[in-house]
Design a protein that fits this description.
With 442 residues, the chain is an alpha/beta fold. It folds into three domains: 2-266, Acetylglutamate kinase-like (Carbamate kinase, 3-Layer(aba) Sandwich); 282-356, Alpha-Beta Plaits (2-Layer Sandwich); 359-419, VC0802-like, CATH 3.30.2130.10. 34% of the residues lie in helices and 24% in strands. The protein has 13 helices and 20 strands. α2 crosses α5, α7 (172-184) packs parallel to α9 and α8 packs antiparallel against α9. The protein is globular. The two termini are 14 Å apart. 47% of the residues are buried.
Length: 442
Amino acid sequence: MVGLILRCMEAAAAKDSQEDRIVVMKFGGTSVAGPEEIKRAAARIVAARESGDRVVAVLSARGKTTDELVAAAYEISDRPDPREMDMLLSTGERVSCALCAMAIHDMGHHAISLTGSQAGIVTDSSHTKARIMEVKADRIREALGDEQIVLVAGFQGVSTDSRDVTTLGRGGSDTTAVAIAAALGASVCEIYTDVTGVFSADPRIVPDARKLPVVSYEEMLEMSAAGAKVLQLRSVEYARNNDVPIHCRSSFEDVPGTLVLPESETMERPIVTAVTHSTGESRVTVVGVRDEPGVAGRIFGALAEANVNVDVIIQNEPVGDNALADLSFTVDRDDLQTAVDVIDGLGDISNSIRTDEQIGKVSIVGAGMRSHPGVAAKVFEVMGDKRINIEMISTSPIKISCVIPADQVPEAVKGLHGAFGLGEDATFPEDPTGEHRPTVKP
C-alpha cells in the first residue's frame, strides 16, 4: 500500500515539475496551539515554498481559543446574538495568521495574512453556519504573483447581502481551504492535523485501528457525516464537487497520510472500510403527530428554515382509525434547543415533545458494501452478541448507522471493527494499473 502512495506521489511530481504548482495547506488548532507549533507550521510552509510551490496556508484558531471565546460570550449572554458571535469568533483565526506571518518573515520569506473577507470568501447570511457562495481570489492570485506566501484566516467570510462577518461552523477552516484550492486550481489541498491520516476507527477506542492510505470522496462523506472528525463534511462535499484532491497529514510527522480522491481513482475496496461513531447528537421525539399529508413537511421545513440539520428519522405507523404517530429524529446537540423551540412554535402539531441527550451513533462505511449481501446481518449479530439495543437505523448504499445508548458506543465500535477484520493486520489489494492521479508530494 505504501508503494501505491509513493507511485501516486512520484507521478504527480513528474507531472508538475515543469510549472510552479499552487498548494493549499491547512493547519488545525492543535497545529498552531503555541509558539513552537506556529514556528513548526511556518517552517513547513517555507519548505513547500522553497521547493518551488506557490503556497496558500489556511489557519485555524490556536488550540482552545474558539472554545474560550464561546465561553466568554455565554458569560455575558444566555443566548448571544448570532451576528455578534461571528464578530467575536472570527478573531481567533486572524491571530494565528498574523503570528505565523511574523514567523515566516523571520525565516527570510515574504508573507501576507488576510482575513476571510480580504481573501474573497463570500458566503450567505446564515450567521455561525454560513455556506460559501463564491471565492473571489483576485487578491490571493496577486500576492502569489508577487512571490508572497499567503496566509488566510479560516472558518470565516463575508455575507454577500449584509457585508457582515460570517463564520462557517465547527471545522469550517477545512471548507475554507478546499474552496480556495478549487478557486485557484491548486494541485492539492493538504489538511494538517494532530493525527497522521484517516483511520479505520478512532485509535483511542480501537488501539489496532489502521491508517487508510486512500479513501473515496463518497466514503469520506459518509464517514464525516457519521462522526469522523478528521474532515468537516462540507469540505468533502466541496472537494468532490470541484475535483480537489485532499491529503490528510500530520503536522508533527513528515510521513504520507490519507488521500481522498474520486472513487474511480481509488483501489479495489474492501467490503467495509471503517467504523465511525458520534456521541454529539441528541434525539427529538414529536409525540402524537397527526397522520396526514403535509405534517412532516411542516416540521422539517421549519427546521430547515432555522438551519437545523436533521440526521436519522423514523416514524411509527399508527394503528387504528384516527391514531396518532410518533416522529423521532436526531440533531446535533448544539441544535437541540433550537429544534424544540421551532416545533413548539408550530402550535398544536403534536401532543408533546421528548428529548434524549444520552444517545450515540455507530456506523460502518465501505464502498464494497454495494455488491456484498449480509453486511447488515453481521452488524445486527454483533450488536445482539454485545447485548446492545438498537434504537434507530439509517442506511445508504455504502453505510449502515445505528443509534444506540451513548455508554455502549465504545463496545459497539470495538465489536464491529473486529468482526469486519479492520485491524492493522488487514490487507487491501493495491491498484494493479498504478494509474492514480493524486497530485501530492511526500
